[in-house]
Every structure is written in C-alpha cells, then in structure tokens.
Amino acid sequence: MADLASVTEHIRGAVGENSGLGKTVKIDLGDTGKIFIDGASVPNSVSNDDKPADATVSISWDDFIALSEGKLDPMMAFMQGKLKIAGDMMIAQKLAPLLKR
C-alpha cells in the first residue's frame, strides 16, 4: 500500500528537473497531507510543504490512489466533485501525466 512518502518520491521522479509545468501546484490530500510541486524553480522540486500555489488540487487519499492507478478518470472525478481545482485549471491538466504509476 502506498503512503505519502512513497507517492511524493514517485512524483519527484516523474517531475524530474524540468516538468514543463512552469508553475506551482499543491495537491491537498486532506488529513493525509500535501504534496507541493514547484515547477517554476530550476531544477523543479517536490516536497510536502503546505505553501501557496498557482493551482491547488483537492482530492481524498483513496480517490488519489485510484486516479494514479488509472481506476478513476480525472474528468469523471472532477464532474462528481471528488476532485476540486482552485486556481489555474490549465496547470492541473498538465499534472495528470505526472501522477500516473
């Protein structure tokens, strides 16, 4: 079973030094914690800091895992209110490929 540390490490690997995001994104996993992707810095960085971001994606841990495993469609999750996006919607769309496992 994945935990926040292993998921953060996976995203760090997927983001690499230059994700092409050019912005900051926070994934808010509720009580489980946060994943902050700084796609604006060089090199890009990924941490568990709770900092302001250009876009914030809010999703429950279970839905996040289902999404990363391809069991939950991001658009359906958004339509059903399981996935909420505050801020720049375009960044959130660029994020999807980085979350796949």
TrEMBL record:
Which ranges carry the SCP2 domain?
Answer: 22-100
**GO annotation, cellular component aspect:** cytosol
**PANTHER family in alphabetical order:** SCP2 STEROL-BINDING DOMAIN-CONTAINING PROTEIN 1 (PTHR10094:SF25), STEROL CARRIER PROTEIN 2 SCP-2 FAMILY PROTEIN (PTHR10094)
Q: What is this protein called?
A: Putative sterol carrier protein
